[in-house]
Amino acid sequence: MFASLYEIDSHKNMNNNLLITIALLFLALLLHQSQVIFGVNISFSDLFCLIIFVTLVYRNQLLIPLAPLLYFLIVSMVVLVTAVFYIPFHFMYNPVPTRLLSEYIKLMAIFIYFIFGYNLLKVGLMEKTIKWYSIFGMVIGGLGLLWTVLNIPIFSDILFFEHTRYRGLMIDPNYFAVLQISANVYISRASHIKPKYKFIALFITASAVLISGSKTGILTLFCYLVLRVSEYVFTKNKRALSVITQIFLVIFLILFIPLMVSFLQNFVTVLSSSIPAFARVQVLFTDFSSAFSENGSGRNITWKVAWSLIQLSPIIGIGIGTYSNIAIELFNQSDISHNTFLQVSTEWGLPLAVLLFSYVFFILGKATNSRLFNAEVNFILRDIIIVLLLGSMAISLNNARILWLVLGGLMASLDRNENLKKYKREQNV
What is the pTM assigned to this prediction? Predict the structure, then answer.
């Protein structure tokens, strides 16, 4: 049923297929949507992902790379065996079968999205998918800005969390904020988009993050902007005069930091009075040390619990469908870790987690140096992953569909780079 790992024609009737185009359009929109149904966080993008997935299978165009498949099978075996056999013996807790099943369905879903992303790149549809994902992200962000400024009550129960924090179509404002930033990457990176549209998109993104009241979103946006500015200053080829000007500008900004901090605090106070959601973000500017403590978000508690669980079972983890119950039994804390790195390490065990994240950072490095094929697309995919990893420091994004879709696409793109390098070496010989 499945195609082998040989290369296929990247545009084999795919771009002209109306069904695929419509499915991709809805998929890109619904990647910004999630809702809890029967206790499971579901996105309706899954339906359209399945449509395209089945179409690829029917056309014998689906490629499944061997290494990720083996890794998924090993992870599946470890988390299931741990949850079913090790946890009842070691913690005297029997996982609920329905919870175990729902968590494994999530695990299967992220693998399917990874394979889906891998194949979207192979058939030449990844850039189009990310383009629509970004456009819809800006539309949803702009909608929030409009609703906030005009104080529109219609659909506010759906679009806002507790009537103050904008969350778009997502269940969580923090998740929304990080996705909003990831949607800005394509627009800011694409060379064919005019600068004025890039600034408009950045304004919408920053505004949407502010009205979400997400401290995680604010810090993620700040870190990504610092990354982009640093890239521009240190890696772009410039004339000597331009470099000297930028150095003096940096020195000027450093000298005026005290004045800027005072202005920023006053600005934040005014902003908090007009945007209720921003009041919870204000602590980042007034008392950063407590922003992630109990008075801020309680992240320090969930991180400590996760680290304690890792220490209890560092090699094979605690499996899936067990985290909340074990945490509340041992530490009277049922929340998940709110950190992707800790969550994966807790559930899968350190060896599998370290292997995964080592590979992710490895391909991020490769994407930075890839120039032969899809260089711009590689940077876009790389940056989306970086944004999601930055957000992962304070929320659990291990089940985020866009993360695995983009990761699969980047792997496929870098595979093609390797094939081109090999071909060039053979030609030179």
Answer: 0.86
